[in-house]
TrEMBL record:
<feature type="domain" description="Aminotransferase class I/classII large">
    <location>
        <begin position="118"/>
        <end position="438"/>
    </location>
</feature>
<dbReference type="GO" id="GO:0016212">
    <property type="term" value="F:kynurenine-oxoglutarate transaminase activity"/>
</dbReference>
<dbReference type="GO" id="GO:1901605">
    <property type="term" value="P:alpha-amino acid metabolic process"/>
</dbReference>
<keyword id="KW-0032">Aminotransferase</keyword>
<dbReference type="InterPro" id="IPR015421">
    <property type="entry name" value="PyrdxlP-dep_Trfase_major"/>
</dbReference>
<dbReference type="GO" id="GO:0047958">
    <property type="term" value="F:glycine:2-oxoglutarate aminotransferase activity"/>
</dbReference>
<dbReference type="GO" id="GO:0047536">
    <property type="term" value="F:2-aminoadipate transaminase activity"/>
</dbReference>
<dbReference type="GO" id="GO:0030170">
    <property type="term" value="F:pyridoxal phosphate binding"/>
</dbReference>
<dbReference type="Pfam" id="PF00155">
    <property type="entry name" value="Aminotran_1_2"/>
</dbReference>
<dbReference type="InterPro" id="IPR050859">
    <property type="entry name" value="Class-I_PLP-dep_aminotransf"/>
</dbReference>
<comment type="function">
    <text>Transaminase with broad substrate specificity. Has transaminase activity towards aminoadipate, kynurenine, methionine and glutamate. Shows activity also towards tryptophan, aspartate and hydroxykynurenine. Accepts a variety of oxo-acids as amino-group acceptors, with a preference for 2-oxoglutarate, 2-oxocaproic acid, phenylpyruvate and alpha-oxo-gamma-methiol butyric acid. Can also use glyoxylate as amino-group acceptor (in vitro).</text>
</comment>
<dbReference type="InterPro" id="IPR015424">
    <property type="entry name" value="PyrdxlP-dep_Trfase"/>
</dbReference>
<dbReference type="GO" id="GO:0050094">
    <property type="term" value="F:methionine-glyoxylate transaminase activity"/>
</dbReference>
<protein>
    <recommendedName>
        <fullName>Kynurenine/alpha-aminoadipate aminotransferase, mitochondrial</fullName>
        <ecNumber>2.6.1.39</ecNumber>
        <ecNumber>2.6.1.4</ecNumber>
        <ecNumber>2.6.1.63</ecNumber>
        <ecNumber>2.6.1.7</ecNumber>
        <ecNumber>2.6.1.73</ecNumber>
    </recommendedName>
</protein>
<dbReference type="GO" id="GO:0005759">
    <property type="term" value="C:mitochondrial matrix"/>
</dbReference>
<comment type="similarity">
    <text>Belongs to the class-I pyridoxal-phosphate-dependent aminotransferase family.</text>
</comment>
<keyword id="KW-0808">Transferase</keyword>
Length: 446
């Protein structure tokens, strides 16, 4: 990653004025005195006697201990003292040992230049969220006002649209292809504005760009390093923030075959926006949902300290903190594995089904590009102008179900010839059979 920055010859071009990015609601948030005391108590020695927090007595809880069996490893044991901690309130940033582990991992994988910055310059900071979706919603609330222009991939994750559209912002689609967001299209859009106006009060220059750079949902597309560099340079020119939503980062399988999975953890990861963020303008969301457990609801935000602090203030006033129990369970697992074990034990079985997909029956009725990461295949159905009725009304008759592509567009009622297929849960045989049924469905509709 350090070589990447040397190639780019990037140097910070200005001190970031984070105040101008904040919504009025976010700027008005104040620290919770009780939450601050909880953070202090969390870092204090056991000899501390606290009469401050309104925490219930864990001796009254019905759960005493737990032993959790782990695939290919020793069981995770929560004895009575640890269980008392697991069932109690904890700090809003996250439990210290999990945060420390994750910070070390982020520095190892991304080598963010911001790790060595001062707090005022946007030093790298992290917090735990209840899944990355909570983190995204809180980031949007922090940054997006009604009437703001927000840039994002087209098509994009329906959950992002659900979070942004009620905010009353103007969503501006940036075209993408099999290699992700197209910088030339982004540049053309931005040329509507003068970069010199970006920091002027009341300017309509977009202040936020949202993207899923790896294994995009729904397209499965991954941005090339060159495209990320171009997008980052445009972010510097027009002074906007980049929200790097990367839940599929650990599900990259470009140039990986089913016979090569043992080498999977050895290959280099795709360079990230965080790895080239010399200006402290990237907010990154990561998730354990796709690689450890979706039900545990563990996600992370990494970004400039002044902005992560604002997110934490929102957490203090809403969820208070992510489940202490699940944080401790994940933390124990990660510490037992170590960074190398984590990379080796990631969830990669989803590749098996997709890599053996035989599309012979499908070639005449559909078009697609092999995804470079993630869990999805974005398929254009030939001769079908809109897949909504086909999927929602007729697919069940053929006993096959996909997601109609229109739900990933800003205007979901616009005709869309695409469908999204998820290949993470099915066997190779089920995948082949599903596409045979889909092919029959398309032929019947033509």
């Amino acid at each position: 990653m350090s070589n990447l920055r040397n190639v780019l010859h990037l140097r910070p071009i200005r001190s970031m004025n984070y105040a101008r990015f904040l919504t009025a609601v976010s700027a008005a948030r104040k620290p919770s005195p009780i939450r601050i005391l909880t953070e202090l108590q969390q870092r204090s020695p056991p000899s501390l006697i606290s009469l401050a927090g309104g925490a219930p007595n864990p001796n009254t809880f019905p759960f005493q201990s737990a032993s959790i069996k782990v695939k290919g490893g020793e069981a995770l044991v929560m004895d009575e003292p640890l269980m008392k901690r697991a069932l109690q309130y904890s700090g809003s940033y996250g439990i210290p040992e999990l945060l420390s582990w994750m910070k070390d991992l982020q520095k190892s994988l991304h080598n963010p230049p911001t790790a060595g910055y001062s707090s005022e310059r946007g030093q790298m900071e992290m917090c735990v969220t209840t899944g990355s979706q909570e983190g995204l919603c809180k980031i949007f609330e922090m940054l997006v006002n009604s009437g703001d222009n927000v840039l994002l991939d087209a098509p994009t994750y329906s959950g992002t649209l659900a979070a942004l559209q009620p905010l009353g912002c103007n969503l501006i689609n940036v075209a993408s292809d099999q290699h992700g967001m197209i910088p030339a299209d982004l540049r053309k859009i931005l040329e509507r504005w003068d970069p010199a106006d970006a920091q002027k009060p009341g300017s309509s220059v977009p202040r936020v760009l949202y993207t899923i750079p790896n294994g995009g949902n729904p397209t499965g597309a991954s941005m090339t390093c060159e495209r990320k560099q171009e997008v980052y340079e445009l972010a510097r020119k027009y002074d906007f923030l980049i929200i790097e939503d990367d839940p599929y980062y650990f599900l990259q399988f470009q140039k990986v075959s089913s016979s090569d999975l043992s080498l999977y953890s050895q290959r280099p990861w795709a360079p990230t926006f965080l790895s080239m963020d010399v200006d402290s303008r990237v907010l990154r969301t990561d998730s354990f949902s796709k690689i450890l457990s979706s039900g545990l609801r563990i996600g992370f935000i990494t970004g400039p300290k002044p902005l992560v602090e604002r997110v934490v203030l929102h957490i203090q006033a809403s969820t208070m903190h992510t489940s202490t129990f699940t944080q401790l369970m994940v933390s124990q697992l990660l510490h037992n594995w170590g960074p190398g074990g984590f990379l080796k034990n990631k969830l990669i079985y989803i590749l098996d089904g997709f890599l053996s997909f035989s599309p012979v029956c499908f070639v005449d009725v559909a078009e697609w590009h092999p995804p470079m990461a993630g869990m999805f295949l974005w398929i254009k159905l030939k001769g079908i102008k809109d897949t909504q009725q086909l999927i929602m009304e007729r697919a069940l008759e053929k006993e096959v179900l996909l997601v109609p592509g229109g739900v990933f567009n800003i205007n979901s009622s616009d005709p869309c010839p695409y469908v999204r297929a998820a290949f993470s849960l099915s066997t190779p045989q089920q995948i082949d059979e599903a596409f045979r049924r889909l092919a029959d469905l398309i032929k019947d509709a033509m």
